[in-house]
Amino acid sequence: MSQIISRRVRSTAVAVLAGSAVAVFAGAGSAQADGDLHGAIAFSDSTGVVASAANYADAPSADNAAIGHCGHGDCRIILDFSNGCGAVAQGADGHIAVGWGPTQVEAENQARDFLGPSAPPFPDLGSASPRAATIALSTCTANAQ
After folding, report:
1. How far apart are CA 35 and CA 58, in angstroms?
2. Closest CA to 120 of 97, 92, 89, 96
3. How many domains does the chain have?
4. Residue 76, domain extent
5. Contact 107/79 with Cβ under 8 angstroms?
6. Does residue 118 fall inside a structural domain?
């Protein structure tokens, strides 16, 4: 069964630090492509919407589903992954980054690590101290570890 997730990140003034990324994970002995499951994460620069699709038989189908659920004309794929997980983290400054890995924890940690701590933009009613990035969205294929 295919999985779709869509969320809006807080800021529309974001930059994808990791650029367009492609990650492929294959378990030991998984030479046949017919068992692979694909996922994708799409992002809209104008609205800050991130959307994902997982458990598709091929990457183009996952891409099309993620872009469709993103729902805006400027949506673009920021991460493709197979047989694993993808995540989007957002820093306090509004920047986002993607991460991927064989598990959800690894994907989320990688996305957070790309950003590192960041301070919120001025003026901020809370503390101006740097904060760790938060996970805006993460998803895995059904055959992830």
Report:
1. 10
2. 92
3. 1
4. 3-140
5. no
6. yes
